[in-house]
Amino acid sequence: MVSNMEPCPICQENLNYTSLGDSYRATCPRCGEYAITGSAFAVLKNRTISLRQRANASGWLRENQNFSISTSNLDALFRLKTPAFHDRADKILLELEKKTGYAGEYVGVDKSWISWGWCLNEAEFRELISYLSTTTTRLDLLHRNGSDSYKITANGWEHLERIKRINIDSQQGFVAMWFDNSLQEVYNNTISQAIFDAGFKPHRVDQREHNNKIDDEIIAEIRRSRFVLADFTGHRGGVYFEAGFAKGLGIEVFWTCRKDDIDNLHFDIRQYNCIDWESDKLEEFKKRIAFRIESVIGHGPYQIEK
Length: 306
Prior knowledge:
Helix content: 25-40%
Radius of gyration: 21 Å
Distance between the termini: 63 Å
Shape: globular
Strand content: 15-25%
Low-confidence stretches: none
Number of helices: 11
Strand order of the largest sheet: 1-2-3-4-5
């Protein structure tokens, strides 16, 4: 049993743990809420991790609350690349928008904001805030009042509208799913065809020739995509991770799962409107995917070459 107060294995802040059998539920002031298996916790206690790796993992967890850390996704979590300076500033601005009840409201900051900007420490966070607040370059996206609280300016609201149009010109739909032979035909004849029908080009990373590390290729292709379609049938850790990574970037995610496996969805994504499907009703599944894509982001520009 882990004591109530322990250093967070990710960011090293003191946090509260609750034992859940062979795993733990953590509440961290920086990382937020997450679960971690006992084996992953033991690995982290004996692993040398750089401060930047910790900051990146903490930032990702803050964006993907209630994520379950295990030995199967631990390496991917600590291989995350640091987002560009401007991207991290945008993350802070987007979080401030979520916490703002009305235009003109000042919102106070706390320790969690360090992770919203994927920051190494408070000094780096202050540098990002200074950039967002500067008037010398006409940026002026934030305004600080006498205390440590901020409001979004008119320029800030305009900037938010711009950055929400993520990859608006991309014709690619990234597919995250279990690469099992039992699902190959479902991808070939249903999922990929539905994406084509919606006006986009499907991309599954195992079907592309490349010389890069597979995890780098996945991250690069998600960044290039207009949306991610994540099928959770089989509940592979990589699918959860890729969907969470896309959500953190602000990229639209469409959730699907075979009907007889949907009760096994992790609790942290059950809030989303998941398209369930049955093996003997794949034509209906194809139509539902295409309709969902078009209803959320519109019909895409991609046309299959004749």
